[in-house]
Amino acid sequence: MTHPAIEAHKKSIAYAMARDKEKWLALFDEHAEVHDPVGPAPHDPEAKGFHGLAELSHFWDIMIAPQDIIIAPHRQIATGPDTAAVFMTMTNNYNGIKFHLDMIGIYVVNEAGKLTSLKAYWDTAEAAEKMK
User: Where residue 72 sits, what CATH number does that domain have?
Assistant: First the structure.
């Protein structure tokens, strides 16, 4: 049997790459939170993250929808009954600029297998430099 948080991760990246917002949002609990990246970023300067399905929908619109992304997981580690850590590389084609970023994602699910938390750790300064 596949670990539920790893299964949620696999579906999350598949739906993001397929640009299927409806299926991606359906992976989340109604009170879920997304921090992508963890820490301040141009789209989240106060590092509050995005909470609840309405804010996650907004996150999709500003961060996933305008990009052509490929996410390649390199290692997935179940770190408990409801949590997985994933090392991955994202290849992004944003406004005609193609670049790669290494990331670590932490996925947490509830008993129903719905994501309650997704935290992505990546270097925003590196991303900004590559988008110049």
Answer: 3.10.450.50
